[in-house]
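Okay, is this right?
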Amino acid sequence: MSEMYKLINLLIKTHIPFEVVEDNFFEKITPHIYYPCAEEPKCSIVCHEFSYGGRVGRLEIMGLSQYFTTDGVPMEDDVIGWLDAEKVFDAIFSDYHSDKE
C-alpha cells in the first residue's frame, strides 16, 4: 500500500477530518490530501513525480512545519518532503488534538 493510502487509512481510523481531491499533475491523476478541508487547509499532502520524495513514494507536506524537527530544532520550511505516512499522521494528530485542549 502506498504512503498516501496509509495516511488516508490512519486519518479514517482516528476520525480526523480531511478531504481528498484528485489533482491532475502533468496528465496523471493523483490524490491530494487537505487537512482538515480543501477550503481552509492547515496542510496539504501530495505524492507525485515532481514532489519531494514522490519518485520513491514518499510524501510532501505543506504546512504544520512546527511539528517537524531537525536535530531537535523545529523546521521553518513551508514544504517538507521525503516523509512516510506515520510522520505526517503524527503531525496532523498532534495538531488536531491541540485544537481540542
